[in-house]
Amino acid sequence: MTKKLKGNLKAVIAIIIAVALILSGLYVYITFFPRKEKPEEIVITPKIYTTELLTKTYDQLKAEGLLNLLNITDNRISPLENQGLVLEVKRIRHRGLLDLMFKPGTAWKKKPMFYFISEMDGLKYVSKDIESAGGAKAETLFNTWDAIFQESKIMKDVPEEQETSDVTLTIMEREKTGLLGFKTEDVEREKIHLVYDYRTGRWTGDDYFDDCDGYGHYVGDNFEIWFDLYQIDYDMDGIPYWVEVNILHTNPKVDDSKLDPDNDGVPTAWEWRWGYDPLVWDDHKNLDPDIDGIENIEEYKMAKWFADPFRPDIYIEVDGMQKGGLFDIQHVFWKESQQMLIERFCQHGINVYIDDGWPGDPTNGGGELLPYYDTLSQDSGMMLQFYNNHFPDERKGIFRYLVVAHNSGFCHPSKFNRYDTLTIDSSPYKLYLRRAAFTPRTQRIVLASAAMHELGHSMGIAPWTIEGCDNISFARGENAKERREAKERYLETWGNYRSVMNYYYIFDKKLVDYSDGSSGSPYDQNDWLELYLPTFQIEANVIEEPFFEPPGKDKIVNETVSFSVNGWVYDENLTQQYLKKISGWSPIEPVKCKFRVYRRVENGTTPGDRDIRIYAQPIYKTTIVPPSEWTLIKEGYVDNQGSFHL
Prior knowledge:
The structure is a single chain. The chain folds into four domains: 1-37; 51-294, no CATH class; 313-429 and 533-555, no CATH class; 568-645, no CATH class. Helix content is 22%, strand content 22%. The protein contains 14 helices and 23 strands. The protein has helices at residues 3-32, 50-53, 58-63, 97-101, 241-248, 268-273, 296-301, 335-346, 383-390, 428-434, 440-457, 480-493, 503-507, 572-582, and strands at residues 84-94, 113-120, 123-126, 129-131, 137-139, 142-143, 152-157, 164-177, 183-197, 203-205, 217-219, 223-231, 313-321, 351-355, 369-370, 399-405, 410-411, 421-425, 568-570, 593-600, 612-618, 631-638, 644-645. The strands form five sheets. Strands 2, 3, 6, 8, 9 and 10 form a six-stranded antiparallel beta sheet that branches. A hairpin with a 5-residue loop joins strand 8 and strand 9. Helix 8 (335-346) crosses helix 11. It starts with a helix and ends with a strand. Residues 28-48 have low confidence and may be disordered.
């Protein structure tokens, strides 16, 4: 055997041995050192994430990587109908009346004139320019402080499969100019720009889902506007085709405004509108995310009256009283008084809606003129006859009931011990003599002030929470000297409490506002941070029996009723995790809240697949919230990575 052959043989043998060693080593490694398995990938199904998908535009879903969670089977936009966009202008309210009411003169009597201009992808429409099919033309402007129920609609034909539209809504106000005011000038007061997404039916821009003033509700510096944007829809439920086939998996040919597949009492269309999963049961009977006392199922019933489940609403039904004789006046809640109340609450992010005869009212709705009584008193309980026979049962627990009467003025329970009944005084004697309201302007201020005072009682401000409320010690005394001294003593203490809840500022100062607390404690408080809107629904902790004398702190009874939820258990660990997640957030800013997270126990009694519930309770310095009053604001689950999905 040659040297060369021997060398090749040795090389082959070496290679064989090396391969054998490698294979044996690999065997040993695999056998005794098993490979670490790759962690199982967490797959989250679209159904669980539905609520997080429903409130976003297509571009937002794409940017956030959420489209990957969808099994998009049909990316078309309008295969069933001629694609088009509709803008509904539901209501425009001028915000300037409140300031004018406090200026001497008659400027408040001059109602503003305004109109709107809409532009939809370049299609311009001016609401004042009206032209009939026969060619007749007219100029029609809104001539009112509040154009409620004066709705308008504009339609735009859109090329098929267009993805978005630009929409601009401009409010123009006509003002008189020149030395004698014979000329006019149209001035731009508000301008809203929106981008509408045809796939998801959502819009962004100057108004968007879950913004500070509500979806489809814009509060500008000069005007407040309610509107809606929606596309032409085959089944007329307002839910776009793309959402129905790719997210909800509902039938785009069936009207979902009448269907409730999850049997939670609220139909699919409303749940889609407000970002709830229409295929998963939600506790809408108890959910109240804005803590205004109007639960979601009631918000749904009030949808045509502008109800927003995420922004606090106050509904008031108002009835007047007939004249009592030749020299009496008709007892009604003047429109200007209403606007003063609406505007003051608007400044603090609270929507007030006053029914004094809305179209489409239920039987015995607002605006009735009740039989005349010379005097009403809370001790007599006479309001019960009006409460029973002129305040519809379906509105109790949603509306407060206000009567403008002859001699009266109180907020007192009609049934059980719940402060949902109010009455205010408009007798000539009280207006002209006692309150020195000699002009129509000051009379309207006085009426607004009285209504705001009684309304404050229905939201938790009472003499037993702050003694400056309903305190009339400034007017007591047998003679002028004693009354003067009493007033001086009063002003040294409760004179700093500049609130409509303080009688001194109703009688002498004609105030229409709650205190902002700027004078400091102990004789002032920020009333706006003490308002607990659900007060009108819960049992008070004081019973005002006949001849009750404020402050009545000796009558306070706080029952120790514990809060519990059948089928759910409080979880301290999850509560602490949630508090870290929200880091000071509150559902009713700027009022802060306490929170509790409840976890479902096995075999819970409530349907659906929600695993946790979030309850909240506002934190007040003086207003008393019973320990058992916790509000359900959110439902959801916590995934295996510890993230909350609500």
